[in-house]
Amino acid sequence: MVKELLKINDLKVSFFTPAGEVKAVNGISYTLEPGKVLGIVGESGSGKSVSSYSIMGLIDKPGKIVWGSITFNGKDVSAMNRSERLNFSGNEVAMIFQDPMTCLNPVFTVGNQLAESLRHKYGKISKEEVRKRSIELLTLVGINVPEKRLSQYPHEFSGGMRQRAMIAMALAGAPKLLIADEPTTALDVTIQAQILELLKDIQKKTGMAIVLITHDLGIVADMADDVIVMYGGRIVEQGSVYSIFHNSRHPYTKGLIRSLPDLKKRGEKLIPIKGNPIDLLNLPKGCAFAPRCESCLKVCINHMPAEYATEDGHRTACWLYDERANNSGEVKNNG
Ligand SMILES: Nc1ncnc2c1ncn2[C@@H]1O[C@H](COP(=O)(O)OP(=O)(O)OP(=O)(O)O)[C@@H](O)[C@H]1O
Ligand code: SF4
Ligand SMILES: [Mg+2]
Which of 2, 40, 273, 299 is the most buried (most CB within 10 A)? Predict the structure, then answer.
């Protein structure tokens, strides 16, 4: 039996722009087990969205997956035929976004759009069944008087309600995996908290896995089982939520966590670490974080660090955990 629901192996995604090849994702690997919540954090432009869109087949020209594989339930996503692909994106895996209007069509009623998602999942189902299931879905996402709401258009919904309607549409296919890309960033704090409680609740009820992309470390601490920290299109650290917050190893992660006044508080956004963001058109030969790293060694400048498994399941891509670098007596470069 396949244990992982999702397995990403050495994924590389580039955008071929007139200025050159933008290496947005540079060889990331991770696995996700059924029913788990994986938080992905990292500063703007670190490749969080691009790596997740790749799972859904949403990378368009000039973007291209140039290397690696994505396996879902043991099946190679790139080898799926058209009907498998259709079933995969929408039914097996669904995605929600910061802006619900990415998913909701302003010219159709919410009921019409839910019906379409349900038909995508169940094929020919009766009108009565569609109505019954649509009402169930709107109730599940906490929309009151769902019978009335079905005949309304998205503009008749408030921002928070649109977010709920988008989640209902994503759930129509009963996905095994939900990818949530900054789902609450645009909402005010009270509505954010409600939507996150809703996602947690639904996750418990349905047992679906979630990939949760966010700038908010408080949300990650609250919701995720495991965490991936990205920098410059790579995973610099990954581990359980406990080990990332209480025993982080990578200088970038340490900097992020140090800058948090209170982890338990939501709304604790990543504070940018000093120094310039990395140029994805001209990636450095060595560690991408080197120009901003206070612990940088000479070896970091020209040689990419390998990944070091520092404890059960906790991995860090940093030279500091290589005995050879530590024994060589190298002086710090930036300190
Ligand atoms: N259509 C595109 N054309 C060229 N480059 C792109 C395109 N889409 C994304 N990129 C590049 O890919 C990099 C990674 O983008 P991505 O959207 O994954 O970042 P992110 O981590 O999700 O950031 P944010 O937190 O701001 O959403 C960006 O720095 C950008 O330069
Ligand atoms: S590999 Fe070197 S430059 Fe990169 S994070 Fe580790 S110590 Fe800093
Ligand atoms: Mg993004």
Answer: 40
